[in-house]
Design a protein that fits this description.
Blueprint lengths: L1 E2 L7 H8 L5 E2 L2 H19 L24 H11 L4 E4 L2 H15 L8 H12 L2 E3 L2 E3 L8 H8 L7 E4 L2 E4 H7 L11 H6 L3 H31 L9 H5 L4 H13 L4 H4 L11 H4 L1 H23 L7 E4 L2 E3 L7 H29 L22 H14 L22 H30 L9 H11 L11 H13 L2 H7 L14
Parallel strand pairs: 1-2
Antiparallel strand pairs: 3-5, 4-6, 6-7, 8-9
Helix pairs in contact: 1-4, 1-9, 4-5, 4-9, 9-11, 9-14, 9-15, 9-17, 11-14, 14-15, 15-16, 15-17, 16-17, 17-19, 18-20
């Protein structure tokens, strides 16, 4: 059980909450803190103290006073006027993650939200009534205003929600469950839409997905190494001790363990080949650099998961600060860095695919014995080339741009929402690139028989053969690619390598 506002939220726990595998609750201590903070806001209104967003307008209208009678209308108007998102809806699981992140931030008692409003948001999470949120419209500065406004329209009986996989109006959904729309009190609308939860939810999803890809990249790279009769000398621990980047050291360790006791490797110990191409030899440096970038993103994401990104912040009775904790820059930069890291894993995988087609190192050209009539595995590499190129075009850092908004009040913005979306697009492509490399590597390794590879590699190949057979002639390769793509999205292969404890002594590179 997770206690919102009290326990430390991690990427792993967030994923469990979003998947419904962990329950999140508000304990009595936190409930009291929430009610106390809400009372502080009531006091501000009753005493007619001028505090931004409570009894003033928003953005460039911050100097315009709002009467006591109009404070509730102000919050209602805020949500409907800021619901300007466009484009396709984000995945329901990302929207649910946004709700989870928002509850944890609000439950810390610095936002003045009412307990009733927070409990309604929890109801949405617990019952999987997930709001529809358009993917575009946030500049990632005054928080993710547009997507968060859409996220909370259903509290007012507006917008649309997913219920049991079907999209229906929020009004219909509330009626179905015998509920009525709620009325927002002073500052509540502002507390709901100020924050980085759109950026953060995409970061959480990317951290989990990229970690999975990095784990797979090492095992697939090891199979490619074996198939290409590559050397394990570049993975020697002594080499990586004198250039001790932790991500690189971890990958070298994993590759040593993944190829341990391989007959394929020992069969060419004295072959006279001096050096392997970089895509084999430099896996620790390239995969490892991407792991370093991943670790940086994970660490900053978990700071943000436990942060208050509202504005103004209610620190105590008559004690508020109007600041900039909603600005997305702290996540925008590492998200862009991780986008490059994800793209590079795909870049080097494509190069290994190409190596396996060339007919070098004892492999048949195009990975079929009989070509001419058959094109063999020529064309799947076209797909990896296309995906790699697309990823390169997505690597321009969104955070390098800033377009002033709000009549110049918000004169520097992060564009972190775009960073988060782009990173997940690159990971989408990377998953297919890895599936194609696995298709190539598993095909190529069969030409080394009767030699056996390591226990882990052989177990992996056995599992792959349950889904995709060895090819002897042309076929519709997209079917095999899609089958392997779906296989890689599960934990079937990572569970095989997890049992071998390949990440020993590198606990910080795990998701918990």
């Amino acid at each position: 059980m997770f206690h919102y506002g009290k326990d430390t939220l991690t990427v792993g726990k967030t994923v469990l909450l979003a998947d419904g595998k962990m329950e999140g609750v508000l304990c009595e201590e936190i409930r009291q803190k929430i009610e106390e903070s809400h009372q502080f806001v009531k006091n501000i209104v009753e005493n007619q103290e001028v505090v931004y967003g409570i009894n003033t307008g928003f953005g460039p209208l911050c100097d315009m006073p709002i009467s006591i009678e109009q404070t509730k209308t102000l919050q209602y108007n805020l949500l409907i006027s800021h619901s300007v998102g466009v484009g396709n809806p984000i995945l329901p699981e990302i929207a649910k993650t946004m709700l989870i992140c928002k509850v944890h931030a609000l439950a810390q008692g610095f936002s003045g939200i009412s307990l009733a409003t927070l409990e309604r948001i929890l109801w949405h999470i617990d019952n999987d009534v997930i709001p529809l949120v358009p993917e575009k419209g946030s500049v990632g500065a005054s928080g993710d205003l547009a997507p968060l406004a859409h996220l909370f329209l259903p509290l007012l009986g507006l917008g649309s929600v997913y219920v049991e996989g079907k999209l229906i109006s929020a009004k219909e959904a509330l009626a179905k469950f015998g509920l009525s729309p709620i009325e927002l009190g002073p500052k509540e609308g502002l507390a709901l839409i100020n924050g980085t939860q759109f950026i953060l939810a995409h970061a959480v999803r990317a951290v989990a997905r990229l970690h999975h890809c990095l784990e797979l990249a090492d095992i697939i790279g090891a199979i490619s190494l074996e198939a290409l009769m590559g050397s394990v000398k570049p993975f020697d621990a002594r080499l990586h001790t004198i250039r001790p980047f932790r991500g690189c050291q971890l990958v070298a360790q994993r590759l040593r363990k993944l190829t341990e006791d391989s007959e394929v490797l020992t069969s060419h110990t004295d072959c006279g080949r001096v050096q392997d191409p970089y895509s084999l030899r430099c896996m620790p440096q390239v995969h490892g650099a991407s792991r370093n970038a991943w670790l940086h993103l994970k660490e900053l994401t978990e700071i943000e998961l436990n942060s208050v990104t509202d504005n103004p912040v209610i620190l105590g009775d008559h004690d508020t600060i109007s600041g900039g904790n909603f600005h997305g820059q702290p996540l925008a930069l590492p998200l862009d860095y991780a986008t490059l890291a994800a793209a590079e894993v795909g870049n080097i995988a494509d190069r290994r695919c190409y190596l396996m087609l060339e007919g070098r190192f004892g492999l048949p050209k195009l990975l079929l014995k009989e070509t001419g009539l058959n094109s063999g595995f020529m064309i799947p590499q076209y797909t990896t080339a296309a995906l790699v190129s697309e990823n390169k075009s997505l690597c321009f850092p969104a955070s390098a741009d800033s377009i002033p908004t709000s009549l110049g009040q918000e004169d520097h913005v992060s564009m972190g929402s775009i960073s988060g979306r782009k990173l997940n697009q690159v990971i989408d492509n990377l998953e297919y690139i890895l599936a194609i490399e696995l298709l190539y590597a598993s095909q190529a390794l069969e030409f080394r028989r009767p030699l056996k590879s390591s226990k882990i590699v052989e177990t992996t190949i056995e599992k792959i053969r349950e889904f995709v057979p060895f090819a002897t002639e042309d076929k519709i390769f997209s079917e095999d690619i899609n089958t392997l793509h779906q296989l890689l999205k599960t934990n079937i292969l990572t569970d095989i390598i997890k049992s071998e404890n390949l990440n020993e002594n590198y606990d910080d590179f795990r998701i918990s």
